[in-house]
Amino acid sequence: MIRLNQVSKTFSGGTTPAVDRVSLEVPDGEICVLLGPSGCGKTTTMKMVNRLIEPSSGEILIDGKNTADYDVTQLRRSIGYVIQQIGLFPNKTVEDNICIVPDILGWDRAKSRKRAAELLDMVALEPGAFLHRYPRELSGGQQQRIGVLRAIAADPPVLLMDEPFGAIDPINRVIIQDEFLKMQAQIRKTILFVSHDIDEAVKMADRIAIFKDGRLVQYDTPDNILAHPANSFVSDFVGGDRTLKRLQLLTVRDAMQADPPRVRAADTLKKAAAIMEEHGHQSIVLVGPRGRARGYVSMQAARGANGLVSENHETLPTTIKPHEDLRTAVSTMFRHDVSWLACVDDDGMYVGYVTLRGFTRLLSETYRDG
Amino acid sequence: MADGVLPMLTQLRRNGAHLGLFLLGAWAWASGLLPGLLDKWDDIAFLGWQHVTLVAISGGAAIALGVPLGILLTRPRFRPIGDAALQVLNVGATIPTLAVLALSMSLLGIGDSSAIFALFVASLLPIVSNTMAGLRAVPPHLLEAARGMGLSPRHMLLQVELPNALFVIYTGIRTALAINVGTVPLAFLIGGGGLGELIFTGIALNEFGTMLAGAIPTALLAVLIDFIMAQLQFWTIPRGVNPLR
User: Fold this and answer.
1) What is the pLDDT of residues B159-217, one digit of tens each?
2) Does A89 contact B149 at a Cβ distance shorter than 8 Å?
3) Which of A91, A93, A96, A194 to mutate to test the interface with B (most CBs of B within 10 A)?
4) Is A215 in the same domain as A268?
């Protein structure tokens, strides 16, 4: 747990504080994104945690212990640090870069080298091919992966990341962000993450801290920041399309109607029409003998028609998995010009459906609550 | 066919080199140069050894003092005077080595010690200034990353700063040794001995052979020392920061 208690910083020669009485708490295993325009004090706040910048007043506690009580190098060795410029040491191999902190902590060499190989495996870089390369022989994306591995090599409970993915091209950035989130799900570090990109913040954060002129203006979950901005600065900063951004915070599961009505191949169209009538639906999904989604029947085709479902169904244009986000779902709907999607699990079993109307209702619920 | 051309050229070049060497030897013998040199072999060996000793002592001392001095002047504590020191060194480097020798003699009198001192001063300047330049050119984000991870100043110097500055430092040492070896013959003028004795005697007596007996080994020695330094530079600088590899 990281706790900042009324932390301020005034640089020598400055009249106004760069960071002004900031208090916030990051629970164990969560990512807190410090967000704001340049010069808002977010980086200064982060650097006060590992005392690259000494606070002018206030206290910072890590797991209840005041950082001012640590020997400064000992403190830094217990905190992972990733910077935008990556800062891999060009004179060292990938292996030696990863093992820097374990080495200065005096770990057994065999143990730290084994750990380096395991870490590389985690980010899908083949240890045999990469351990003995030099940084200049890697792409930017590969270098930053190593930068992150280097920060967690000695298994510090806390990680500071200063716009870590800012210098990476958009395509690779998304890949590395996803990879990092997957890794974080396993390693559960407590992370302070500086960013100026609201989309990155929404994607990475468990909590977002929005800064303006050295002050913390709002500290909340991404969904609350987007749904209930504290003031006009925050709502301007998160953007006019903030409701659309919320789509990527919600998963299909959140909006899904579970245990939906369904028909089987042997059912008659008459029965299908009756079920649709009963639920007020315009179409119904046909499932196979074990429950796999096989197609659908529309009200138009079923009403007043005779015959079996097996002879009169259409194929589903597409399906979606419950763990995907609503942004993907909406995009899929628009692409296929449909207003509902059948949800299937990893085995292809029909588990529910989502509709555009359902999304609207879900998103507006929060506003009514507020 | 195409892959046969390169080995052929290599072969041709090697044969050419052998042939050239043979012709040079033949000419040297026929013109009486080689027999002349062999006559003076004892002198050459004795003075050559003196020559190497001068280089080793003055150059070694310059490296031993220059590199630590350059490191010291880039430490935070001395950073304010670092710039001034660099200016002084750069001005110092413009003084001709002959003038340095003369000044040294006026200070320490005639003999080995004044020669060694002058050579030491002349070699010190490029080593200190290159050490400083190399250390200052280490990108600041490397230092930030190192500090942020909890490297102590000593760790930073040994594991980050020096390895990344090493190429520039080596370049300074090579320049210094080139100046040193080239200046040693002049050391004879202030009583330092060395192969300069043969060169200047040859000139004074108008003895072509004597002069060459000093000049040729001096030239070979300069080439040899630079070659050794180049090898050291190639093999001891980590591959990741070695532009030669």
Assistant:
1) 999 999 999 999 999 999 998 988 999 988 888 888 999 999 999 999 888 888 889 89
2) no
3) A91
4) no
Mean pLDDT, chain A, rounded, equals 92
Q: Among residues A223, A249, A275, which one ends one of the domains?
A: A249
Tens of pLDDT, residues A48-102: 999 999 999 999 999 999 999 999 999 999 999 999 999 999 999 999 999 999 9
CB contact under 8 A, A87 and B240: no
* Final residue belonging to a domain, choices A195, A219, A249: A249
Query: A160 touching B, CB under 8 A?
Result: yes
* Count of alpha carbons within 13 angstroms of residue A131, beta-carbon side: 13
Q: What CATH code is carried by the domain that includes residue A271?
A: 3.10.580.10
Q: Model-level pTM? A: 0.80
pLDDT value at residue A369: 54
Q: Do B149 and A92 touch (CB under 8 A)?
A: no
3-state secondary structure B44-69: HHHHHHHHHHHHHHHHHHHHHHHHHH
A360 touches chain B (CB under 8 A): no
Say yes or no: A106 and A242 in one domain: yes
Shared domain check, A15 and A138: yes
Please tell me if residue A134 touches chain B, with a CB cutoff of 8 Å. Answer: yes
Q: pLDDT grade, residue B1 (50/70/90)? A: very low
How many domains is chain A built from?
2
Q: Which of A90, A104, A134 sits opposite B151 (nearest CB)?
A: A104
- Please indicate, yes or no, whether residues A15 and A98 belong to a single structural domain of this protein: yes
- How confident is the model over A222-262, as pLDDT tens digits? 999 998 999 999 999 988 888 888 888 889 998 999 889 99
**What structural domains and CATH numbers belong to chain B?**
41-241 (1.10.3720.10)
Per-residue pLDDT band for B3 (boundaries 50, 70, 90) equals low
B149 touches chain A (CB under 8 A): yes
State the Cα–Cα distance between residues A96 and A103, nearest whole angstrom. 9
* Mutant choice from B143, B149, B241 vs A, greatest count of A C-beta within 10 A: B149
> In this complex, which of B139, B142, B147 lies closest to A52 when CB atoms are compared?
B147
Interface contact B241-A91, CB threshold 8 A: yes
Residues A316 and A270 in one domain: yes
Q: Which pLDDT tens digit goes with each residue over A136-159? A: 999 989 999 999 999 999 999 999
For residue A125, what are the domain limits?
A: 2-249
Q: What is the ipTM of this complex?
A: 0.79
Of A73, A83, A86, nearest to B152 by CB-CB distance is A73
A257 and A347 in a common domain: yes
Token look-up 């989309």 returns A199
Decide if A91 and B151 are in contact by the 8 Å CB cutoff. no
